Amino acid sequence: LGSLVAQVVAKHHPVPIEFVAIKDTYAKSGKAAELLQRYGLTAKDVEQAVRSVIKRKRK
Fold first, then answer.
1. Cβ contact 9:1 at 8 Å
2. Most exposed among 14, 24, 43, 44, judged by the fewest C-beta atoms under 10 Å?
3. Can you give the residue ranges of every domain in the chain?
4. Quick check: 57 and 16 in contact, CB under 8 A?
5. Cα–Cα distance, 44 to 49 (Å, whole number)
6. Among positive and negative, which fits the CA dihedral 8, 12, 13, 14?
7. Predicted confidence pLDDT, tens digits, the chain (59 residues)
8. In the chain, which residue ranges form alpha helices assigned H by DSSP?
9. pTM here?
C-alpha cells in the first residue's frame, strides 16, 4: 500500500520519500516494545527517518 501511495503522490508532487516499515521478513511475536526495537520502528527510528528526508529535501 505504501508504494502505491508514494507512486500517486510522486506523480503529482515530487517529494523525497522514506519508507518506515518492517523489511521483507517474517516478523516474530513478542512484546510490543521489543518488536519495535527489533524492527527499527521506535519513535527514535521514525524521527531519524524524518530527519533524513528533510535533509534530502533541502538539497
1. no
2. 24
3. 2-58
4. yes
5. 9
6. positive
7. 778 888 888 888 888 888 888 888 888 999 999 999 999 999 999 999 999 988 887 76
8. 2-12, 32-38, 43-58
9. 0.71
